[in-house]
Amino acid sequence: MAKQRDYSFDIFRGLCMWAIPISHFTRMGGQFSQDSWGGVVYITINVFVMQGFMFLSGYFSKNVDKSRQSAFKTALWPYLLSIPFFYAVRYVIYGHATFYLDTPPFAMWFLLALFVYKFFLRELARLPHVLLLCTGAYLIAGCLPFLTEFLALGRIVSYLPFFMIGYFCTPEHIRKLKCLKSYQSLLLFCLLISVSFVLAYLVPQVSQEWYLLRNPGSYLDVPWYLDIAFRGLLLVLGAAWIILMLNILPNKDNYLAYVGRNTMPVYIFHLIIRQILKKTDITMGLFPMPAEPLLYYLLIYALASLCVLVFSARPVVRIYDLAVDGSYNICRRGFDKLCLKLNLSHKDR
């Protein structure tokens, strides 16, 4: 009997994917400040969304050999394609661009980190006390000057605990975590949102930039002890949000579940819109910036939702799959032919 799919994981991934353009557009909308509703939304998203993605990626990477075999095709290959692609995007939008290989373009650090996790998962899983080790590394990562945006080292270390927790999490663990009653889930949600308000309005010494975990705290004038303390808080908040999502998301196939199964086109293509907003604002130069905050935020959420709707549409998904999988297959066949020729040439000698 075939195992029934749990659509709540797809919905979780789809919800995270919808939240990412909201986060990016909130920051690039033109009227961002940390001590505002936009700051609350931005911090809320950045304390759990990528952590949730990594948790789910680890949970569905139980087969370490399959993870290693697929790591290049599913993670590193799209990452490599994104480098010239986003160079072209920057050139078209800004009229100039710098081609660099040492820093992931835009939000492509996620793919590079995922490749590292999946490729080395077999070795990581065998390490004694690996969860304790990667959590310890995460807590002090903000104090180490070499864990920066260079090859996304800062983020690779900072999100590893969530990937490994997902890997070691079993279906039995998930069933035990789904223990909250409705009122308990509501209380947890209110508590987590309250924490976001406190962080946005009352803790200016830790700016919204810090929550991206891409550079040492010293880059943002965050003292080492505060960096460690807030990383510990972030670990608790991320875990609490994941537990909340596991308890409130339904196990049924719906539109968010569909988006969750087709996240990459949305993830890639919404970044083009993000760069346009960075150059202009939420209106993209089509009309004046709204003075009413409510209308301003509604524009942000509407544009983010439109990106999800358009970029997850089946024609766009097919185009993305053809471009990524097609180019991979062409290069793979060419590489195999080259290896065959070199092997035959070696045998002739």
Explain what the structure shows:
The chain has 349 residues and is an all-alpha fold. It has 2 domains: 7-312, no CATH class; 314-349. 71% of the residues lie in helices and 0% in strands. It is built from 15 helices and no strands. The protein has helices at residues 7-28, 37-46, 49-59, 64-94, 109-119, 121-126, 130-140, 153-168, 171-177, 182-202, 224-248, 255-260, 263-279, 293-311, 314-348. Helix 3 (49-59) packs across helix 11 and helix 4 runs antiparallel to helix 5. The longest helix is centred in the C-terminal third of the chain and has 35 residues, at 314-348. The radius of gyration is 21 Å and the shape is globular. The mean pLDDT is 95.
**Uncertain runs:** none
Give the averaged pLDDT, no decimals: 95
Number of domains: 2
How many distinct beta strands? 0
N-to-C span: 55 Å
Helical coverage, percent range: over 70%
Q: Proportion of β residues?
A: under 5%
Cα radius of gyration in angstroms: 21 Å
How would the global form be characterised? globular
The helix tally amounts to: 15
Report the sheet with the most strands, covering strand number, pairing sense and barrel closure.
none
Class by alpha and beta content: mainly alpha
What letter string, H or E per element, gives the SSE order?
Answer: HHHHHHHHHHHHHHH
Quick rundown:
By secondary structure, this protein is mainly alpha-helical.
Q: Which secondary structure elements does this structure contain, and how are they paired or packed?
A:
Layout (H helix, E strand, L loop, with lengths): L6 H22 L8 H10 L2 H11 L4 H31 L14 H11 L1 H6 L3 H11 L12 H16 L2 H7 L4 H21 L21 H25 L6 H6 L2 H17 L13 H19 L2 H35 L1
Helix pairs in contact: 1-2, 1-3, 1-13, 1-14, 2-10, 3-5, 3-8, 3-11, 4-5, 4-13, 5-8, 7-8, 10-11, 13-14
